[in-house]
């Protein structure tokens, strides 16, 4: 059965139990009241009869007979009994079968002590209520008994029970119809949730459950929880799709970069096997080219392995760093010497962050890895800026962080290019071939990963025609002696 049918059936079952229980209790209490009233009447008749004179006086005194008649009810039996329980005188008889009196001798009447009791009729088709009392002083009989039939009480209760059951049936029918529509209206929000869930199962991940009720209610809380879950699923799907796209792009770029040196090496070997290098000088030149391609290949593989290790370890990558107290001024001075050596005609300035005088920048880092970071930035500046252009190296402390920056006067990048500059194999010129320096587009990715592993961040500030500034920010470490 559906939830709506089960709820209505359960509600009706509870109502049936409640109505039957309450009706039964009311009818039982009413029957007890009617029986108690009957007991009081027959007790009153028994008391009056107890005070009456004997049979002879009863015949002559009509006033006494009228008194009994006034106290009696229809279909009542009144009699006098002897000491051994036999009927001595019937004061009032019934039209139908009389009650089947039990043995009511003197001891039995005394034992009942005037309490009413139930007895059947002589034919067994009726029930009576009777009271037995000792006779008054001066009476010839030993006791009197008065009995009233329960027929009227039973008939009244049967009629009442039938009417109450009819009323209960009508009430249950009306409540069942009203409950069906009420439950249907109450479950309408759940049907909307069901519809939304079906749409999501069919592939519509953008569907959301409408806010069906206040947040503090069960439906409101359910809708909020479902929408939160759907948002997380959609975000997770988007992240997974981006990761898959990045992985496909990474595999394609890595394959291209690996294929280029391998193709050169294979070409030289095929040329040698085909006899295209008859002279020793030709073989030496080919071997030199092959060695250069092999070095490029080894460098590329090492860079890929480094990035893979950093990605695999994630936050735990910091545990693999050989960190010691150091000052970024050392890296800045070495970068200045490298730039002068690689391009003697280039103007190189050593300043503080953004200008001014350079200052100390103590950090807790892996000097070899941070040198690799600075080496990649220096190589990037030489490869992508005009020969002889000015380069500024800034080092110091700014806003509570150690700062090391390299600013060039190259062509700069657009906002879209700057947003992807740290992506693997990304080149701002979108060329598939390697740059003039032989890079594969992994240098800045390595810079980003290593700086992140040190708990810092790397920023790029650039604009077309206005050069680029790469800024490394690391947590400041002030425990270096003599810092």
Distance between the termini: 79 Å
CATH topology of the largest domain: Beta-Lactamase
Radius of gyration: 55 Å
State the oligomer. Answer: single chain
Q: How many domain regions?
A: 3
Q: How can the largest sheet be summarized?
A: 5 strands, antiparallel
Which CATH architecture of the largest domain is right?
2-Layer Sandwich
Number of strands: 12
Structural class: alpha+beta
Unreliable runs: 55-61, 430-438
**What does the overall shape look like?**
rod-shaped
The helix fraction, in percent, is 40-55%
- Strand % is 15-25%
Listing every helix as H and every strand as E from the N terminus to the C terminus, the arrangement reads HHHEEHEEEHHHHEHEEHEEHHEE
Q: Helix count, per DSSP?
A: 12
- Can you tell me the CATH class of the largest domain? Alpha Beta
In the sheet with the most strands, the strands line up as 2-1-5-4-3
* Average of the residue pLDDT scores: 81
Describe this structure in words.
The protein has 483 residues and is of the alpha+beta class. It has three domains: 156 residues, Beta-Lactamase, CATH 3.30.450; 96 residues, Signal transduction histidine kinase, dimerisation/phosphotransfer (DHp) domain (Helix Hairpins), CATH 1.10.287; 155 residues, Histidine kinase-like ATPase, C-terminal domain (Heat Shock Protein 90, 2-Layer Sandwich), CATH 3.30.565.10. The protein has twelve helices and twelve strands. The chain has a five-stranded antiparallel beta sheet. β4 and β5 form a beta hairpin. α1 packs antiparallel against α5, α7 runs antiparallel to α8 and α9 packs parallel to α10. The longest helix has 56 residues. The chain is rod-shaped. It starts with a helix and ends in an 8-residue tail after the last strand.
């Amino acid at each position: 059965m559906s939830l709506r049918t089960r709820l209505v059936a359960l509600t009706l079952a509870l109502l049936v139990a409640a109505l039957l229980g309450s009706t039964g209790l009311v009818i039982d209490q009413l029957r007890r009241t009617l029986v108690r009233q009957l007991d009081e009447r027959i007790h009153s008749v028994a008391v009056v009869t107890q005070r009456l004179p004997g049979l002879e006086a009863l015949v002559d005194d009509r006033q006494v007979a009228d008194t009994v008649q006034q106290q009696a009810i229809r279909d009542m039996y009144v009699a006098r009994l002897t000491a051994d329980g036999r009927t001595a005188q019937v004061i009032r008889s019934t039209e139908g079968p009389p009650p089947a009196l039990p043995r009511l001798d003197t001891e039995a009447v005394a034992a009942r002590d005037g309490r009413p009791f139930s007895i059947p009729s002589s034919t067994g088709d009726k029930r009576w209520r009777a009271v037995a009392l000792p006779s008054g002083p001066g009476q010839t009989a030993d006791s009197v008994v008065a009995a009233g039939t329960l027929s009227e009480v039973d008939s009244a209760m049967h009629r009442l029970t039938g009417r109450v059951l009819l009323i209960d049936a009508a009430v249950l029918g009306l409540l069942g119809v009203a409950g069906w529509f009420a439950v249907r209206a109450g479950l309408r929000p759940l049907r909307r949730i069901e519809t939304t869930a079906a749409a999501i199962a069919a592939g519509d991940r953008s569907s959301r459950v409408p806010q069906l009720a206040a947040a503090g209610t069960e439906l409101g809380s359910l809708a909020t929880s479902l929408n939160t879950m759907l948002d997380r699923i959609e975000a997770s799907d988007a992240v997974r799709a981006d990761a898959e796209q990045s992985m496909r792009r990474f595999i394609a770029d890595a394959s291209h970069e690996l294929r280029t040196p391998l193709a050169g090496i294979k070409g030289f070997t095929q040329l040698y096997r085909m006899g295209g290098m008859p002279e020793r000088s030709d073989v030496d030149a080919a071997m030199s080219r092959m060695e250069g391609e092999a070095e490029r290949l080894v460098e590329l593989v090492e860079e890929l392995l480094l990035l893979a290790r950093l990605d695999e370890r994630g936050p735990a990558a910091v545990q693999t760093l050989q960190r010691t107290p150091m000052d970024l001024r050392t890296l800045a001075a070495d970068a200045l010497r490298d730039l002068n050596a690689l391009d003697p005609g280039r103007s190189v300035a050593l300043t503080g962050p953004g200008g001014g005088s350079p200052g100390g920048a103590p950090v807790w880092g892996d000097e070899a890895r941070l040198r690799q970071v600075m080496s990649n930035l220096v190589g990037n500046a030489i490869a992508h800026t005009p020969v002889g252009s000015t380069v500024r190296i800034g080092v110091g402390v700014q806003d509570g962080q150690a700062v090391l920056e390299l600013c060039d006067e190259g062509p700069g990048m657009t906002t879209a290019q700057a947003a992807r500059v740290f992506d693997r194999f990304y080149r701002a010129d979108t060329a598939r071939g390697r740059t003039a320096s032989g890079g594969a587009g992994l240098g800045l990715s390595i810079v980003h990963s290593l700086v992140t592993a040190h708990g810092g961040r790397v920023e790029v500030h650039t604009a077309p025609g206005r050069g680029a500034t790469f800024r490394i920010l690391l947590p400041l470490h002030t425990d270096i002696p003599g810092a």
